């Protein structure tokens, strides 16, 4: 009697394979900025050839954009206030979660922010979409009208917050509660002037 042939591994659909490849990129992000992900390492972890990865993403930039967008979506989901949170606590909670996010993913987050500022159009597009969504959430939480002045002020505050939190995670010059209070105070002063 002959042994039955080993079952063939199930083939993944194109969408499943793309999701797997993006997930691998996300798993590497805590230690590797997206622009430094190597296609060979991603393909190796997926158990596919480098050329097959390019079947699912036409270029490295397409792959990097997909990973960047997925990371931005995760960050946004992490930062958004939970349903039913009191308005007064929404911005403070977002700030606390943002500081925690930058602490956990400092290098990748700074690469995201700097890539957007440095003129990488694919990073800038994802960054601007994410920031615009966060500005809208902050305006709602602060019960401010979504007009050009308030949008501009809150956007500028986000830039200040990104820079200060990035520096603070490298060199904490004050306790975390003081950092959060300072960021909230600056926001309140900007929008109530």
Give a verbal description of the structure:
This protein folds into 2 domains: about 10-65, Homeodomain-like (Arc Repressor Mutant, subunit A), CATH 1.10.10.60; about 80-193, Tetracycline Repressor, domain 2. Helix content is about 75%, strand content about 0%. The chain is built from 9 helices and no strands. It has helices spanning about 15-30, 40-45, 50-55, 60-80, 85-105, 105-115, 120-140, 150-170, 175-190. The radius of gyration is 20 Å and the shape is elongated.
Provide tags for this entry.
transcription, DesT_TetR_C, 193 residues, Arc Repressor Mutant, subunit A, mainly alpha, Homeodomain-like_sf, 9 helices, Tetracycline Repressor, domain 2
Overview in brief:
By secondary structure, the protein is mostly helical.
């Amino acid at each position: 009697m002959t042994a039955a042939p080993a079952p063939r591994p199930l083939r993944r659909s194109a969408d499943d394979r793309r999701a797997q490849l993006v997930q691998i990129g996300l798993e590497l992000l805590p230690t590797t900025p997206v622009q430094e992900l190597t296609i060979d390492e991603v393909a190796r972890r997926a158990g596919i050839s480098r050329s097959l990865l390019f079947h699912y993403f036409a270029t490295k930039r397409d792959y990097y954009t997909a990973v960047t967008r997925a990371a931005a979506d995760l960050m946004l989901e992490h930062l958004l206030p939970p349903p039913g949170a009191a308005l007064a606590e929404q911005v403070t909670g977002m700030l606390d979660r943002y500081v925690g996010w930058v602490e956990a993913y400092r290098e990748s987050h700074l690469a995201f922010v700097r890539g957007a500022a440095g003129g990488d159009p694919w990073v800038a597009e994802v960054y601007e979409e994410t920031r615009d969504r966060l500005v809208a959430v902050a305006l709602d939480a602060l019960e401010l009208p979504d007009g050009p002045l308030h949008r501009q002020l809150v956007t500028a505050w986000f830039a200040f917050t990104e820079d200060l939190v990035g520096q603070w995670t490298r060199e904490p010059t004050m306790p975390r509660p003081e950092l959060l209070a300072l960021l909230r105070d600056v926001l309140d002063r900007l929008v109530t002037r």
